[in-house]
Amino acid sequence: MGTKKNIALVTAGVSTAAVGVGAWAGIRRAQAKLAQGRTAINETLPVHSKWWRDTAKAEGELLYVALGDSAAQGIGASAPKNSYVGVIADHIRTVTGRTVRVVNLSVSGATVALAVADQLPRFATFQPDIVTCAIGANDIAAFEPELFEAGIRKVFAALPDDAIVGDLPCFYLPWNEKKSPSATRSCAGSPPSAGSRWSPSTTR
Hints:
- The chain is an alpha/beta fold.
- Helix content is 55%, strand content 11%.
- It contains seven helices and five strands; from the N terminus they run H-E-H-H-E-H-E-H-E-H-H-E.
């Protein structure tokens, strides 16, 4: 009887150890996958940035200027041209039958404060026909409501009446998602003008 108990205990111990090893292996695979994803994203940052700089050199009958962060750069999209900026530019070309010059002033990782300091001075040098702005997602992790609202008001004050403004995305992480409504209220409470339009950002 004692021998059977010992065998049962050994079998249970081996099974538990096997489950533990399997779970740890799964965690290591997930960590490796995340590391590969981070590497891939980091490698795309200079590639996308250069693509937009080169694209801005092309002349066009219409001028489209974009402000924002990595979403406007197309990080996560299959290619820079498939970011929402690229999709909008293609749509304008199709609908109007005119050529479009795209100047993408966005910077991956940009916060509202960085947009005010870096993107707005450059934006002031252009007279665009179309403007899009999607900024604020990078402010959520260390969200400071008063600073965010002061910054977003400066951004909106610089935009033309017919600018298209993207709202903040859904973050899915509870600790960040709690901050998103407050930031969105700040945006909604100080839009560029009644004529501006709000639109979610998409990539493909």
